[in-house]
Design a protein that fits this description.
The chain is of the alpha/beta class. It is built from 27 helices and 20 strands. About 45% of the residues lie in helices and about 10% in strands. Keywords: ATP-binding, Helicase, Hydrolase, Nucleotide-binding.
């Protein structure tokens, strides 16, 4: 008897219906289509890209088939906010609704990097100072000492009550304060050597993950596990990558290393009391050479590495190698020396980074940062591309489902698929007419899968929102193109007029902090009866709270507001975007990638700069419509969106809102929404 696709997906449909009913929700066609497609991807071991618009309920769309899959599934998110939503809300409610259904393994665990957990060895034995001596928080004066004592008390209570010991659950603190109660993977003495290994928060999290069917983690840890080959996650069969539009950037970030003289010096100081020879002093001398070379080098990407920098990197590499080798081996049966382990870990980190930079590989991009009054210039190295590593080390070994509200750039999946290592020629189409034109190259003549092929499908399940009725895309064609000097009088007057007609209720997304602050200052003077907030004046959660509390408020900011801010309702009826968010021309990594694409015969501007802009534009425009009741305007003050040749690509990446370039039409629409009479 032939098994149809409908037969195979029936359990998923049934379980999804049970879950939705138990949670008091509504069945959505897009959610059902997504759940069925994810189940088929798991069964057929074919990768899937699924674009699911805001309001689709995509979390249930992948969690339900993941629960039914017969092997372990990893769920990876880009942001802590979504991870928190999954763990604190979505999964507990889902487990309560369907956990007793036969055939459903509803066990799950959260897994993060080791530095996200308090370290009981450091809490109880103290953190080493720059000379490697273990210090106690009582010895530290002032607020930091009191905060470290508070964190230690919290960690002890968490251990006693068998809580997770995760940083997210700790009392409010700074990065510097958290480092006094945590360790990196290199600094860890190891569970078998640590006297507190059985209580260790990180080890308990790993143990729970070993026993769980679902593991919730983040893009960075997934990259370290799958791409760098450092085992961090228990063996799994499939992975769902939510917020997948961020994956390539997060993998790049995880594979980026930094090196600055002060860190090399610190590693040398930590090593002095553990190394008997001159190796630590030689590492300190190498740090001086690095500082001098970096201070004289030009800021930006090194197309050719300056000779002084290259020589300093070799000095640091060789000195760090010698210093790491000079540490004495731990005697069998002796207690672990945490200060020595951590000092050696720092030296090994310096060696690995200096070795990578000194190699000057064509696969990497090396640059010097500008530096600030507080932070000296440093060297950074990042991979030129990450798609090959993802293809060879993630896609080749696991079934991967990538999902987001923003996966189709320019109206197609090809750009995002290519960024993670999937080829357009490997796409599997369901329509027979497409199959006849483009047969599946991922299959051999007998229908078996080719060894190196990565077949994938793309699915857009749409959105429950009627964008054409709910939103207007306004492009201010009459304005001059944006210049290098920031916002001009014409743009500032346009912003003020739009905000006035909306009576506040405005989220302003700007390409720079300077532009956001200039717009905020201008609107405050022109419209003093409205509340105008600018990013940087308070923490983002506090600004968002104020923005939601009073509809007659404007919130202006930069990248932190373009993605992840969720403010449904009449709080936000106008989103202003000051210019198309192309990367800066002097961005070291983007410029290198654009040049590489040109040299390979492609169009670097479209493949890199326009793609980057399309993704951010789509995310920014997506801040407007968050529920089926939302109404409003996205106002783009950059006329190039409708005048430039690349404008159609960018516009095709945006939600399908009704479009106009008529400012009077938009002002009247905003007036009707705000309840103010038109003039």
């Amino acid at each position: 008897m032939t098994t149809t696709a409908a037969d195979r997906t029936a359990p998923v449909r049934d379980l999804l219906a049970t879950a939705v009913a138990a949670l008091g929700g509504q069945q959505r066609d897009g959610q059902v289509a997504m759940a069925e497609a994810v189940a088929e991807a798991f069964a057929d071991k074919e990768h899937l890209l699924v674009q699911a618009g805001t309001g689709t309920g995509k979390s249930l769309g992948y969690l339900v088939p993941a629960l039914l899959h017969d092997q372990r599934v990893v769920i990876a998110t880009a942001t802590l906010a979504l991870q928190h939503q999954l763990v604190e809300r979505d999964l507990p409610r889902l487990v309560k609704a369907v956990g007793t259904v036969p055939g459903v393994d509803a066990s799950y665990a959260v897994l993060k990097g080791r530095s996200n957990y308090a370290c009981l060895h450091r809490v109880r034995e103290g953190a080493p100072d720059d000379q490697g001596q273990l210090i106690q928080a009582e010895d530290a004066m002032g607020a930091m000492g009191r905060k470290v004592l508070e964190l230690r008390a919290w960690a002890e209570k968490a251990a006693e009550e068998r809580q997770t010991g995760e940083r997210d659950d700790a009392p409010r603190h700074t990065d510097k304060e958290w480092r006094q109660v945590s360790v990196s993977a290199r600094e860890c003495v190891g569970a078998t050597k640590c006297p507190f290994g059985e209580e260790c928060f990180a080890e308990r999290a790993k143990e729970k993950a070993q026993k769980s069917h679902l593991i919730v983690t983040n893009h960075s840890l997934l990259a370290i596990d799958a791409i760098e080959g450092i085992p961090m996650i228990p063996e799994y069969d499939a992975v769902v990558i939510d917020e997948a539009h961020e994956l390539a950037a997060r993998v790049t970030q995880a594979a980026t290393d930094e090196l600055w003289a002060a860190e090399v010096e610190r590693a040398a100081r930590r090593s002095i009391r553990h190394v008997e020879g001159d190796e630590a002093d030689e590492l300190a001398d190498a740090a001086d050479a690095l500082r001098a070379a970096v201070s004289e080098a030009p800021a930006g990407r090194f197309e050719t590495v300056p000779e002084a920098v290259a020589d300093a990197l070799v000095l640091v590499r060789d000195a760090a190698r010698a210093c790491a080798g000079a540490f004495p081996k731990a005697e069998a049966g002796s207690d672990p020396d945490a200060a020595m382990t951590q000092a050696k870990g720092m030296v090994q980190e310096v060696f690995a980074t200096a070795e990578r930079m000194a190699a000057n590989s064509e696969a990497d991009v090396l640059w010097r940062t500008e530096g600030t009054d507080r932070i000296p210039p440093m060297l950074c190295v990042a991979p030129l591309q990450v798609w090959a590593q993802m293809r060879d080390k993630l896609l080749a070994d696991n079934t991967v489902v990538l999902t987001s509200a923003t996966l189709m750039l320019g109206g197609d999946f090809a750009t995002v698929a290519g960024s993670v290592g999937l080829k357009p020629s490997e796409r599997v189409h369901d329509r027979p007419e497409v199959e006849e034109v483009a047969p599946r190259p991922s299959r051999d003549g007998d229908g078996s899968r080719l060894a190196d092929a990565q077949p994938w499908r793309g699915l857009d399940v749409g959105s429950p929102f009627d964008y054409a009725r709910q939103g207007i895309l306004y492009v201010a064609r009459h304005l001059p193109p944006p210049g290098r000097d920031g916002l001009g009088p014409a743009q500032l007057d346009e912003i003020t007029e739009l905000v006035d007609r909306a009576d506040g209720r405005t989220l302003g997304l700007f390409s720079s902090r300077r532009a956001a602050e200039a717009a905020a200052e201008h609107v405050r003077k022109a419209l003093p009866h409205l509340t105008t907030l600018a990013q940087g004046e308070a923490q983002l959660p506090e600004l968002a709270r104020q923005f939601v509390a009073d509809p007659h408020t404007c919130l202006f900011g930069t990248l932190g507001l373009w993605q992840g801010l969720d403010v449904p309702g009449d709080t936000c009826q106008l989103v202003i975007i000051d210019r198309i968010p192309f990367p800066r021309p002097d961005d070291p990594l983007m410029s290198a990638r654009q040049k590489a694409a040109d040299q390979a015969g492609g169009n670097g501007f479209m493949q890199v700069a326009a793609t980057h802009a399309a993704l951010l534009l789509a995310q920014g425009a997506g801040r407007l419509i968050r529920t089926t009741d939302d109404r409003g305007v996205v106002a783009v003050l950059d006329p190039r969106l409708v005048t430039a040749r690349y404008g159609s690509f960018l516009k095709a990446s945006l939600p399908p809102m009704w479009t106009t370039t008529d400012p009077e039409v938009v002002r009247q629409a905003l007036g009707r929404l705000s309840g103010r009479p038109t003039r």
